[in-house]
Amino acid sequence: MKSSGHLSNLSTRSRNWLYLLATLIVAFPISLVLTQSTVMASAISTVALALPIEMARLRGAKALKAEREAWPVAIDHLISAVGSGIAIPQAVIDLAERGPAALARQFTEIKGSIDSGAAFHDVLRRAKQRFRTSAADQVLEVLIIARVTGSSNVGTILRTLGEFQRQENSMRAEIEARHGWVRSSASLAAIAPWVLLVILSAQPTTRDAFTTSTGLYILILGVTLTAIAYLWMNLVGRLPEVPRALA
Protein backbone atom coordinates (compact mmCIF):
# COMPACT_ATOMS: atom_id res chain seq x y z
CA MET A 1 0.00 0.00 0.00
CA LYS A 2 2.86 2.35 0.82
CA SER A 3 4.55 1.56 -2.50
CA SER A 4 1.28 2.24 -4.31
CA GLY A 5 0.96 5.61 -2.57
CA HIS A 6 4.60 6.38 -3.42
CA LEU A 7 3.99 5.61 -7.08
CA SER A 8 0.86 7.75 -7.00
CA ASN A 9 2.85 10.66 -5.58
CA LEU A 10 5.50 10.20 -8.28
CA SER A 11 2.80 10.13 -10.94
CA THR A 12 1.23 13.33 -9.60
CA ARG A 13 4.63 15.02 -9.41
CA SER A 14 5.43 14.00 -13.00
CA ARG A 15 2.06 15.28 -14.18
CA ASN A 16 2.66 18.62 -12.49
CA TRP A 17 6.04 18.98 -14.20
CA LEU A 18 4.45 18.14 -17.55
CA TYR A 19 1.80 20.82 -16.98
CA LEU A 20 4.51 23.37 -16.22
CA LEU A 21 6.45 22.42 -19.34
CA ALA A 22 3.32 22.52 -21.51
CA THR A 23 2.40 25.95 -20.14
CA LEU A 24 5.87 27.28 -20.93
CA ILE A 25 5.78 25.80 -24.45
CA VAL A 26 2.38 27.37 -25.15
CA ALA A 27 2.84 30.68 -23.33
CA PHE A 28 6.20 31.65 -24.80
CA PRO A 29 5.26 31.64 -28.52
CA ILE A 30 1.94 33.36 -27.81
CA SER A 31 3.71 36.04 -25.76
CA LEU A 32 6.33 36.38 -28.47
CA VAL A 33 3.67 36.97 -31.11
CA LEU A 34 1.89 39.54 -28.95
CA THR A 35 4.95 41.46 -27.76
CA GLN A 36 7.43 40.89 -30.60
CA SER A 37 10.13 40.80 -27.91
CA THR A 38 12.01 37.74 -26.69
CA VAL A 39 12.83 39.37 -23.35
CA MET A 40 9.25 40.40 -22.63
CA ALA A 41 7.89 37.05 -23.82
CA SER A 42 10.27 35.24 -21.46
CA ALA A 43 9.11 37.31 -18.48
CA ILE A 44 5.42 36.90 -19.31
CA SER A 45 5.68 33.14 -19.90
CA THR A 46 7.53 32.78 -16.59
CA VAL A 47 4.67 34.52 -14.80
CA ALA A 48 2.22 32.26 -16.68
CA LEU A 49 3.74 29.24 -14.89
CA ALA A 50 1.58 30.22 -11.93
CA LEU A 51 -1.49 29.08 -13.90
CA PRO A 52 -0.92 25.27 -13.71
CA ILE A 53 0.28 25.65 -10.11
CA GLU A 54 -2.92 27.46 -9.20
CA MET A 55 -5.04 24.90 -11.07
CA ALA A 56 -3.34 22.05 -9.19
CA ARG A 57 -3.95 23.86 -5.90
CA LEU A 58 -7.62 24.34 -6.76
CA ARG A 59 -8.04 20.67 -7.70
CA GLY A 60 -6.46 19.58 -4.45
CA ALA A 61 -8.58 21.99 -2.41
CA LYS A 62 -11.75 20.85 -4.22
CA ALA A 63 -10.99 17.16 -3.58
CA LEU A 64 -10.22 17.84 0.07
CA LYS A 65 -13.44 19.84 0.49
CA ALA A 66 -15.47 17.07 -1.18
CA GLU A 67 -14.00 14.48 1.20
CA ARG A 68 -14.58 16.71 4.23
CA GLU A 69 -18.23 17.36 3.29
CA ALA A 70 -18.88 13.71 2.45
CA TRP A 71 -18.24 12.43 5.97
CA PRO A 72 -21.47 13.71 7.55
CA VAL A 73 -23.36 11.92 4.76
CA ALA A 74 -21.37 8.73 5.42
CA ILE A 75 -22.19 9.07 9.12
CA ASP A 76 -25.91 9.25 8.27
CA HIS A 77 -25.60 5.96 6.35
CA LEU A 78 -23.78 4.36 9.28
CA ILE A 79 -26.41 5.56 11.78
CA SER A 80 -29.20 4.19 9.59
CA ALA A 81 -27.44 0.84 9.17
CA VAL A 82 -26.56 0.42 12.85
CA GLY A 83 -30.08 1.46 13.84
CA SER A 84 -31.44 -1.28 11.56
CA GLY A 85 -29.40 -3.89 13.39
CA ILE A 86 -26.68 -4.29 10.75
CA ALA A 87 -23.24 -5.16 12.14
CA ILE A 88 -20.65 -2.39 12.02
CA PRO A 89 -18.31 -4.21 9.56
CA GLN A 90 -21.19 -4.78 7.15
CA ALA A 91 -22.30 -1.16 7.53
CA VAL A 92 -18.77 -0.06 6.56
CA ILE A 93 -18.73 -2.46 3.59
CA ASP A 94 -22.06 -1.08 2.37
CA LEU A 95 -20.54 2.41 2.16
CA ALA A 96 -18.55 1.24 -0.88
CA GLU A 97 -21.81 1.17 -2.89
CA ARG A 98 -24.30 3.27 -0.91
CA GLY A 99 -22.02 5.90 0.56
CA PRO A 100 -21.06 9.30 -0.89
CA ALA A 101 -19.21 9.23 -4.21
CA ALA A 102 -16.27 11.22 -2.82
CA LEU A 103 -15.40 8.30 -0.51
CA ALA A 104 -16.37 5.40 -2.79
CA ARG A 105 -12.83 4.51 -3.88
CA GLN A 106 -11.48 4.38 -0.32
CA PHE A 107 -14.37 2.30 1.00
CA THR A 108 -14.08 -0.07 -1.96
CA GLU A 109 -10.47 -0.70 -0.91
CA ILE A 110 -11.61 -1.14 2.70
CA LYS A 111 -14.27 -3.62 1.56
CA GLY A 112 -11.64 -5.61 -0.32
CA SER A 113 -9.42 -5.78 2.78
CA ILE A 114 -12.31 -6.92 5.01
CA ASP A 115 -13.44 -9.53 2.45
CA SER A 116 -9.89 -10.89 2.32
CA GLY A 117 -10.17 -11.80 6.02
CA ALA A 118 -8.14 -9.02 7.65
CA ALA A 119 -9.07 -7.99 11.18
CA PHE A 120 -11.64 -5.18 11.15
CA HIS A 121 -9.83 -2.86 13.55
CA ASP A 122 -6.54 -3.34 11.67
CA VAL A 123 -8.25 -2.53 8.37
CA LEU A 124 -9.72 0.69 9.75
CA ARG A 125 -6.44 1.78 11.32
CA ARG A 126 -4.65 1.27 8.01
CA ALA A 127 -7.53 2.92 6.20
CA LYS A 128 -6.73 6.25 7.85
CA GLN A 129 -3.82 6.55 5.43
CA ARG A 130 -6.27 6.53 2.53
CA PHE A 131 -8.04 9.66 3.80
CA ARG A 132 -6.73 13.19 4.26
CA THR A 133 -8.96 14.79 6.89
CA SER A 134 -9.35 14.62 10.65
CA ALA A 135 -13.05 13.87 10.08
CA ALA A 136 -12.06 10.44 8.74
CA ASP A 137 -9.90 9.73 11.78
CA GLN A 138 -12.73 10.64 14.15
CA VAL A 139 -15.31 8.40 12.46
CA LEU A 140 -12.99 5.43 12.02
CA GLU A 141 -11.80 5.63 15.62
CA VAL A 142 -15.41 5.64 16.86
CA LEU A 143 -16.10 2.53 14.78
CA ILE A 144 -12.96 0.78 16.07
CA ILE A 145 -13.88 1.49 19.70
CA ALA A 146 -17.51 0.49 19.16
CA ARG A 147 -16.47 -2.76 17.50
CA VAL A 148 -14.05 -3.66 20.31
CA THR A 149 -16.20 -2.60 23.27
CA GLY A 150 -19.59 -3.39 21.77
CA SER A 151 -20.85 0.06 22.70
CA SER A 152 -24.61 0.42 22.42
CA ASN A 153 -24.30 4.20 22.15
CA VAL A 154 -22.47 4.20 18.82
CA GLY A 155 -25.53 5.66 17.05
CA THR A 156 -25.74 8.58 19.48
CA ILE A 157 -21.99 9.20 19.27
CA LEU A 158 -22.05 9.16 15.47
CA ARG A 159 -25.05 11.51 15.40
CA THR A 160 -23.28 14.01 17.66
CA LEU A 161 -20.11 13.72 15.58
CA GLY A 162 -22.06 14.27 12.36
CA GLU A 163 -23.69 17.43 13.71
CA PHE A 164 -20.32 18.74 14.86
CA GLN A 165 -18.74 18.09 11.45
CA ARG A 166 -21.61 19.80 9.62
CA GLN A 167 -21.25 22.89 11.80
CA GLU A 168 -17.50 22.92 11.23
CA ASN A 169 -17.94 22.56 7.46
CA SER A 170 -20.50 25.36 7.39
CA MET A 171 -18.24 27.70 9.33
CA ARG A 172 -15.25 26.81 7.18
CA ALA A 173 -17.23 27.44 3.97
CA GLU A 174 -18.19 30.92 5.20
CA ILE A 175 -14.57 31.78 6.04
CA GLU A 176 -13.33 30.40 2.71
CA ALA A 177 -15.88 32.51 0.85
CA ARG A 178 -14.57 35.66 2.51
CA HIS A 179 -10.98 34.63 1.86
CA GLY A 180 -11.93 34.05 -1.77
CA TRP A 181 -12.66 37.75 -2.27
CA VAL A 182 -9.25 38.68 -0.89
CA ARG A 183 -7.51 36.06 -3.03
CA SER A 184 -9.33 37.16 -6.19
CA SER A 185 -8.45 40.81 -5.60
CA ALA A 186 -4.80 39.93 -4.98
CA SER A 187 -4.70 37.80 -8.14
CA LEU A 188 -6.09 40.62 -10.26
CA ALA A 189 -3.60 43.05 -8.75
CA ALA A 190 -0.75 40.69 -9.64
CA ILE A 191 -1.93 40.01 -13.20
CA ALA A 192 -2.89 43.59 -14.15
CA PRO A 193 0.67 44.94 -14.70
CA TRP A 194 1.48 42.08 -17.08
CA VAL A 195 -1.70 42.58 -19.08
CA LEU A 196 -0.80 46.27 -19.32
CA LEU A 197 2.71 45.30 -20.46
CA VAL A 198 1.25 43.19 -23.29
CA ILE A 199 -0.93 46.10 -24.39
CA LEU A 200 1.93 48.62 -24.29
CA SER A 201 4.21 46.24 -26.18
CA ALA A 202 2.34 47.19 -29.35
CA GLN A 203 4.40 50.39 -29.30
CA PRO A 204 7.99 50.01 -30.63
CA THR A 205 9.28 52.46 -28.01
CA THR A 206 8.08 50.14 -25.23
CA ARG A 207 9.81 47.13 -26.78
CA ASP A 208 13.01 49.12 -27.24
CA ALA A 209 12.90 50.30 -23.62
CA PHE A 210 12.80 46.76 -22.27
CA THR A 211 15.75 45.62 -24.38
CA THR A 212 18.06 47.86 -22.35
CA SER A 213 19.80 46.74 -19.18
CA THR A 214 17.47 48.91 -17.11
CA GLY A 215 14.42 47.42 -18.82
CA LEU A 216 15.72 43.89 -18.23
CA TYR A 217 16.29 44.73 -14.56
CA ILE A 218 12.70 45.99 -14.27
CA LEU A 219 11.33 42.79 -15.84
CA ILE A 220 13.37 40.56 -13.51
CA LEU A 221 12.27 42.66 -10.54
CA GLY A 222 8.64 42.44 -11.70
CA VAL A 223 8.77 38.64 -12.03
CA THR A 224 10.39 38.34 -8.61
CA LEU A 225 7.87 40.62 -6.89
CA THR A 226 4.96 38.84 -8.60
CA ALA A 227 6.28 35.46 -7.36
CA ILE A 228 6.67 36.84 -3.83
CA ALA A 229 3.15 38.30 -3.93
CA TYR A 230 1.73 34.98 -5.17
CA LEU A 231 3.45 32.99 -2.40
CA TRP A 232 2.37 35.51 0.22
CA MET A 233 -1.21 35.43 -1.07
CA ASN A 234 -1.30 31.63 -0.77
CA LEU A 235 0.22 31.76 2.70
CA VAL A 236 -2.27 34.33 3.99
CA GLY A 237 -5.29 32.87 2.21
CA ARG A 238 -4.75 29.24 3.25
CA LEU A 239 -6.88 28.01 6.11
CA PRO A 240 -5.11 25.51 8.37
CA GLU A 241 -6.52 22.00 8.50
CA VAL A 242 -7.60 20.49 11.79
CA PRO A 243 -4.62 18.49 13.16
CA ARG A 244 -4.99 14.75 12.67
CA ALA A 245 -4.42 13.77 16.30
CA LEU A 246 -5.97 10.31 15.78
CA ALA A 247 -4.16 9.48 12.53
Describe the protein's topology.
Layout: H1 2-35, H2 38-48, H3 50-83, H4 88-98, H5 104-115, H6 120-127, H7 134-149, H8 154-200, H9 204-209, H10 213-237
Summarize the entry for a quick read:
The protein has helices at residues 2-35, 38-48, 50-83, 88-98, 104-115, 120-127, 134-149, 154-200, 204-209, 213-237. It has 247 residues and is mainly alpha-helical. It has one domain.
Low-pLDDT runs: 1-7
Total helices: the number is 10
Radius of gyration: 25 Å
Q: Which class do the helix and strand fractions yield?
A: mainly alpha
* Helix and strand element order: HHHHHHHHHH
How much helicity do the residues have?
A: over 70%
- Our count of domains comes out at 1
What fraction strand?
under 5%
- Mean pLDDT across residues: 86
Q: Sheet bearing the most strands, described? A: none
Q: Report the count of strand segments.
A: 0
Provide key terms for this protein.
single chain, mainly alpha, 10 helices
Structure explained in plain terms:
The protein is 83% helix and 0% strand. The chain has 247 residues and is mainly alpha-helical. The chain has one domain. The longest helix has 47 residues, at 154-200. Mean pLDDT is 86; it is low at 1-7.
